Amino acid sequence: MLGGIIYSAGLVVAIIVVIYLQYRKFVKQQAVVEGETSIIFNYREVFGPMGLEFLLLSLILIWIIPYGVLVIAPIGLVLSVLSPAGRITWSQTKVPRTMVCVFLISMIMVGSLAPVSQPKSPDSWGNPLLTENPNAPIWPASQQYTWLMAPSAGELDLEIVQSISIRTPHQLGVYGAASSSLNLASLIGLEQSRLHQAIELLDDELSFVRLNPEEMALTLIPNQETHRYVSNTLGIDEDIVIRQYELRSLSIGSNEDGVKVGEVLCAATSTWGGELQVLVIIRPLGHPDLTSDRYAEKLVLDWLSA
Question: 274 and 10 in contact (C-beta within 8 Å)?
């Protein structure tokens, strides 16, 4: 939550800085004008009619609207050029508007590097095998724990589990944050780089097949996007956003789509302030729970209760 407040404060500061710079410019222009009636600086008109109001409203909406700035920014741009008067206003205020856009983008980029909380770590899982992922993107800020759940009977009965905390730069609220973040991750391939480490672990554990992390692909399985996890003992009854993927090796066989070698389940929850908690479970093809427990009930419930 604190990270989101600092993030929002940075956006407010960016707007104030642009208004101050325009005020300084106004004062200098007034100083060189002689014999003219003094004009009062109107800070509300710096960004054009209703421009400041829209910016301040956007700072509120980024806490409320799913996809946040990815929806607000295009709407603002379209509304500002929709009418001839709007296009004239752009020509008159293009400098402060451009400046505030640059400052706001910069603050979003920097704010997304704010430290995140530690990933959820159930006591029953023991200490994580790995507490960082060198293959994870630098931006946005994130932290990751990885466990190797040893097989109880046969090497196929193993699971690689990752618990991740990650900053959500596009929105600060919880409404639709988990779903939008997973959709964006799939769209730009963020989850692919994070799986590199897990694929290396899986390759070390499996003897009947060799997996190259550089030649793996995730294919979304069309399925329900939420699943209800219930435990009376743990006091949990929640609909959690999930995604399921086929894990395919592109180096096996001749099919350009690769060969399925396992499945990946992602479950996600969000918190106020722009932070996402994600659980990733990787299971090889042939794992008994792929048919008997597709939604990894026990692992997800452990994770939710942590």
Answer: no
CA atoms of 62 and 72, how far apart (whole Å): 8
The b-or-e profile of 189-202 (16+ CB within 10 A means b, else e) is: ebbbebbebbbebb
Question: CA-to-CA distance for 136 and 159, rounded, in angstroms?
Answer: 20
Domains of the chain, earliest start first: 2-111 (no CATH), 123-305 (3.40.1000)
Other C-beta atoms closer than 10 Å to the C-beta of 297 total 14
Residue 181 CA to residue 208 CA, distance in Å, equals 35
pTM for the predicted model, two decimal places: 0.88
Looking up tokens 């700035």, which residue turns up? Answer: 69
Distance CA 117, CA 166 (A): 8
Q: What is the pLDDT of residues 195-242, one digit of tens each?
A: 888 888 888 877 667 788 888 888 999 989 999 999 999 999 999 999
Which residue's entry shows tokens 């004062």?
27
